[in-house]
Each structure stands twice: as C-alpha cells, then as structure tokens.
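Why should sequence recovery work at all? Because a backbone constrains its sequence more than one might expect. Tight turns favour small or flexible residues, buried strands favour hydrophobic ones, and helices have their own preferences. The token representation captures these environments compactly. In the example below, the structure is given first.
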C-alpha cells in the first residue's frame, strides 16, 4: 500500500506540533553518571495570577545522595533560582523541602535525599507584555556524594504557552513531593535552654509514637551525631538534644520533628518551639537483662563499701566507733543485734530514698541523688540533729551511747537502727566510685531491679560493721575499756561539730541571711532542750520531785519542737547566682550554650559538676582541681574550667547529668580540642587530672 505524499506531510506536521506540548512541562536534562536533573512544572501552560509549581527533578544513581536545607556534618544544600520572562513575569519562592533521610557515615551524620527527589518552588506569574508564551529560566547548583563528593551545576530553560489549566505528566510527582513536605505541627512545642524539646497535645501516646527525631534547619544547632533520648507519655513527646555551637539557648531554633508510629508510617512536623522552662518527663521503665542486673548489683555493693571512706559519713562513723567497745568486751549477742539493726536502718533508708527519687521522676520532678540537700529546710534540720548528737557526745545530756539515747525508750537496738538511717542521710550527697552508674541504672530499670541495686548499696555501706560484729577477734588490738573511752567520746564530737559548720554554710548559700538567723536560733533552742533533758535525768536519779522533772522535760520537748519545725519551713532564697562568672578559682559558670560555643571553637573544656553540700566535691576541688599544678596546666593549654553548681536545683545541670547516665555529683568531664570526651572518676588527684588533660604528672 502506497501512502500519499500529502498524508506523510500531514502526519509529520502533527508530530511537530504535538512535540512541544509533550515537552512543555520538562526542560532538557543535565546528566552525569551520578544524576540526571531536569526542570519540570505541574502544568503545561501558564496563566498570570495563578500559582505555577516548578521543580528541580533529580534522578540519583544508586549509592549517591544530595542534601537538604541543613546538610548536617558535611555537604552543601541545593540552590535553585527560577525566573519568568515574556508573556508574564515573576520570581519563584524558596525551595519547599521534602523531609530528608538521616544518613550516618562513620562519625558523620547528614540530612539527605537518595533515589528520585523533586525539589519544588512556587511561581505566581504576573501580567507582562502581550499574550505570548512565558520563558522559565533556572539556575541550580547541587552536590552529589557517595565515597566522594562532586559539585554539579545546571541552567535550564522551559517555555510554556498561555492557557487554562493543563495538568502535566509530572503532576503526580508534585503531589508526592507535597505529601513528603512537613506540615505545621498541631502540637505545642517547648524547648529548654538545656536542649529538652517537648511536644504536647492530643494524639500523642506510646502507642502512636514509637520513634522520633529532630532535624534543625540550621547547621551546628545540635550535635546530630549523638542519640536523642526519647520519652513518650500520654499527650507528650520528649527529645533530649545536645546543643551545638549555633544553639544559642534555643532562641529562634526551628526544624522538623519526625514521628514514627507502630506501622512504620512517618510524618514530618515543622516546629518552632517556644524557649522556656520544660519539666522533663521521667524516663520509661526499662527492661534490664539478668546479667546486667548482676553487674549493677555488684557495682552497687562495691560502691556502698567505698562510701564508708567518703567524708560524708565521718560523723556517723565517729558514733559507731563507740559501739566497738561493746564488741571488744565480748558481748557477741548484743553486738550482732546492734549490727543487724544498723544494717536494717541503712538498707531500709537506701530503698526509701531510691523509691522517693523514682516517684518524683514519675511525677515530672528533676530529682537526682542527694536531691534532698537542695532544700534549705532539710539542711537546717540535719544540722540541728547533728548538733544534738555532738552535745550528747560531749556529755551535755547523757541518756546513753546510742543515737541520742533513744534505746532507753524505744525497743532494743532502735538507736542502732536510727544511726543507720542517719548514715544514709549524710552519705546521700556523696557519689562513690561505681555508685553513680549503679544508681543511674537502678532508676532506669524495672522496680525489682532498682530495689535490688539499692539493697546492695545498703549492704555495702553496712558490710564493714557487720564483718566486725561477726568476727570480734578483729578488735583484739583495742585497749581495755576505761576512762579513755570517755575521752574518745568527747573528741568524736569535733568532726560532728565540723559537719554542723559545713551545713551552716550550705544553709546560707541556699537560704541567705534569713536561713542563717533561723539556724542560729535553732541551735540555741536545741542546746536549751538538751540541757533541760540533762536536768530532768539528774532529778530522776536523785529522786527529786516528779513535777520539776516533768517541767524540764516539757521545756525540752517544746524547745526541740520549735527548733526543728521552724528550721524545716524556712523559705529558700536565691543568693547563689548560678549564671554569674566566678573568678576565685579561675572557673566560669556552666552553661550548655557556652559549652557548645567553646566546643564549636575547638577549645578544650574541663567540666566540674559540684555542689556545696557534696563534701567529696569540695575535697576534690581542694586537693586536685585548685592546686597550682593543675591550674597552671589549664592556663598553659588554654583549657576552660567550667563549674556547674548543683547546690540548688538547676535544670541545665540535671539534664547534663542525665545525658551522661548520672544522677548525682561529683561528676567530671574533659572535652579535648579534638577527640572524644573523657569521663573522670569520682575521686581525683592532681596526677590523674594532669594525665587526662595530657600534661603529664605522676
């Protein structure tokens, strides 16, 4: 069959006329072995005043990726500029970025796209001269990376006729890109200066959110190489971020929070959180492997034993030394009973204290190990109690050798039990080696595992005394009982009184002059009450009139009641400025923002987390950190000495401790100019610090 020539001409003309329409929504491609890139639109025609969606369509070869607005640790974001000239003029908006993927490459983290991606912009052509076609001109630069990174560049031209809506072949691609863009978050977002990000609203629950992460739209705002711990409650999602050099306290920070549900479906929410105080959620109860529990229990027991050597418990050890005399006399049964009661007081107090911390965390409070000493009322009450103990040791009132003589009134060994309670109260500000990790593990584990850890802590603290009670032969070196015991008893009051002086200083730091005045009045009332108890006891021994002895007892009870109740209700005062720069020991106040800035500048930083009520902290500062050798090494190497004062509650310090798996002080971290951070032990020496910072030392 012969086709007429005029038919061939007609078919060719139809193809030529149809070709521009088919190609109208897509420019010529810029291709390489890494990517094929074109400029596309969602419509084959334009209309002045109607939005036209234009996009850079990228087909990336397997193994290659390109970058988001914030590329992360490395990379460069794609740039795209689109203008319209001709029948209508206009300039496109910024790129409407889809949610990127998080790519980890060794120590680096990037926010990137792989496979096929469309980066759209919105163009609203305005009326130009005539009704002719509009010419879209675009210039783009992008970076594609695999094992190597290659910058690429492209210029694109696309001509669209004027006309009504004519959806292009790429309209489905634009629809997918639109679905991949983050939407405005329906949840209220708050961010603390320490980096705790919370979303709150209906629809958030552990069932609805199984994973979440935050991607800032500014590079350097956070350290994206570290895990973002997630806590999900009913109506709340919490992420703990580690601030970076561009964090700036969270001011103006925005980005994307990606939430993943149980089905694996993800949705990106655009957030610009309000900066302010955030009440951290308690971490979820963890399921701990049996072997892990065993390690925690062992660490707790060893840490409890070492706690006997910490300065916090010296006052209690002074009182327990008096019980050694009874053991040396061979009163084995009484010694074992007293040791058991002391151990019961210690173990029970550890369990109660651990349970209180866990309960406060569940209630949303920022409680850590030694939290009770952040209350000025608690500090004053303990100071008054120890002052009464010192008066007892000095013989101002002598009801017995056990704690304040209560054993003469309460059941047998009650004084030993209460001495164990007091030992834990005084030991709680200290964190011994192995103890910090054990306490953090206990609070993050199941209730049963946490109970076992705190019991092990108590048994470790009581173990030396239990051993001496079970093996009295170890005390054979003690001299025979005699008048020397009274002298020892009086001398042991001195460390107790020294502890009272220290607690008075802590009360002044936390409560100001009002607390100091109230403490002074309480000390006078305690002294009066103890003297009245002595007078009443003396009258009983002489067989004096019951009425006079009863009057002295009434005055004693009233004095002690007023002293302890008045001390417990003292209001706190913020006399200690955590944000002020200190110059006494060459340190500066801890700030997560400042720490991030210093690390971003590549400066070495030594962080000292301390508290005035932590004797171990003060001892470490005196014998190690404040020595001339260490301070000179800091100055010589340009190390910034940053001190976090946890004497009173401080959300930034609490968040820093929790981020490092700790719940108490002391805690020391060294950040070298390059390399990973170094966590130091709880007990320091000048040589240890010098070795860690690379300044030598023995």
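From this structural description, the recovered sequence reads:
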């Amino acid at each position: 069959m012969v086709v007429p020539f005029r038919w061939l001409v007609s078919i060719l003309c139809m193809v030529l006329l149809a070709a521009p329409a088919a190609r109208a929504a897509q420019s010529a491609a810029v291709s390489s072995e890494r990517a094929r890139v074109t400029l596309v639109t969602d419509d084959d025609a334009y209309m002045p005043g109607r939005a036209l969606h234009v996009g850079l369509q990228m087909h990336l070869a397997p193994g290659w990726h390109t970058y988001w607005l914030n590329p992360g640790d490395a990379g460069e974001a794609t740039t795209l500029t689109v203008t319209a000239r001709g029948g209508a003029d206009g300039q496109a908006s910024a790129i409407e970025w889809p949610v990127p993927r998080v790519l980890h490459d060794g120590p680096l983290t990037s926010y990137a796209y792989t496979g096929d991606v469309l980066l759209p912009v919105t163009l609203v052509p305005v009326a130009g001269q005539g009704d002719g076609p509009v010419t879209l001109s675009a210039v783009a630069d992008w970076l594609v990376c695999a094992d190597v990174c290659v910058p690429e560049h492209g210029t694109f031209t696309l001509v669209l006729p004027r006309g009504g809506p004519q959806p292009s072949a790429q309209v489905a691609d634009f629809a997918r890109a639109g679905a991949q863009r983050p939407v405005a978050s329906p949840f209220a977002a708050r961010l603390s200066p320490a980096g705790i990000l919370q979303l709150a609203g209906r629809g958030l629950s552990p069932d609805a959110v199984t994973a979440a992460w935050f991607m800032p739209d500014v590079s350097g705002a956070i350290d994206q190489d570290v895990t973002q711990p997630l806590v999900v409650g009913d109506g709340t999602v919490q992420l703990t971020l580690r601030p970076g050099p561009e964090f700036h306290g969270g001011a103006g920070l925005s980005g994307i929070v990606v939430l993943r549900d149980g089905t694996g479906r993800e949705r990106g929410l655009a957030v610009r959180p309000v900066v302010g105080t955030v009440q951290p959620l308690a971490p979820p109860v963890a399921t701990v492997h049996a072997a892990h529990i065993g390690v925690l229990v062992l660490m707790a027991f060893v840490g409890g034993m070492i706690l006997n050597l910490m300065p916090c418990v010296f006052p209690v050890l002074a009182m327990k030394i008096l019980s050694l005399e009874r053991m040396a006399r061979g009163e084995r049964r009484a010694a074992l009973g007293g040791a058991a009661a002391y151990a019961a007081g210690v173990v029970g107090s550890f369990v109660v204290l651990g349970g209180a911390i866990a309960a406060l965390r569940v209630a949303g409070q920022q409680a850590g190990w030694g939290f009770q000493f952040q209350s000025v009322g608690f500090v004053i009450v303990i100071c008054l109690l120890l002052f009464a103990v010192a008066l007892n040791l000095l013989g101002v009132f002598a009801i017995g050798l056990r704690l304040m003589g209560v054993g003469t009134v309460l059941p047998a060994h009650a004084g030993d039990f209460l001495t164990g309670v007091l030992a834990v109260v005084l030991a709680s500000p200290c964190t011994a080696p192995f103890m910090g990790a054990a306490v953090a593990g206990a609070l993050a584990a199941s209730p049963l595992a946490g109970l076992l850890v705190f019991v092990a802590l108590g048994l470790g603290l009581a173990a030396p005394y239990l051993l001496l009670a079970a093996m009295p032969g170890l005390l054979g070196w003690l001299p025979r009982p005699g008048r020397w015991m009274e002298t020892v008893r009086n001398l042991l009051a001195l460390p107790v009184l020294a502890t009272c002086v220290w607690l008075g200083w802590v009360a002044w730091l936390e409560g100001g002059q009002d607390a100091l005045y109230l403490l002074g009045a309480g000390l006078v009332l305690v002294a009066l009450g103890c003297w009245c108890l002595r007078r009443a006891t003396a009258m009983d021994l002489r067989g004096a009139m019951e009425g006079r002895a009863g009057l002295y007892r009434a005055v004693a009870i009233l004095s002690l009641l007023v002293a302890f109740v008045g001390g417990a209700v003292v209001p706190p005062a913020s006399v200690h400025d955590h944000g002020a720069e200190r110059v006494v020991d060459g340190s500066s106040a801890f700030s997560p923002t400042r720490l991030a800035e210093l690390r971003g500048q590549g400066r070495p930083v030594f962080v000292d987390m301390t508290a005035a009520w932590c004797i171990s902290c003060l001892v470490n500062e005196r014998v190690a950190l404040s020595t001339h050798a260490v301070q000179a090494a800091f100055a010589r190497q340009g190390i910034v000495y940053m001190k976090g004062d946890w004497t009173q509650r401080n959300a930034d310090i609490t968040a820093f401790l929790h981020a490092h798996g700790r719940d108490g002080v002391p805690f020391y971290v060294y950040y070298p100019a390059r390399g990973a951070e170094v966590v130091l032990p709880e007990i320091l020496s000048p040589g240890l610090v010098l070795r860690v910072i690379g300044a030598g030392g023995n």
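A few observations help interpret the result. Residues 493-542 form the longest helix (50 residues).
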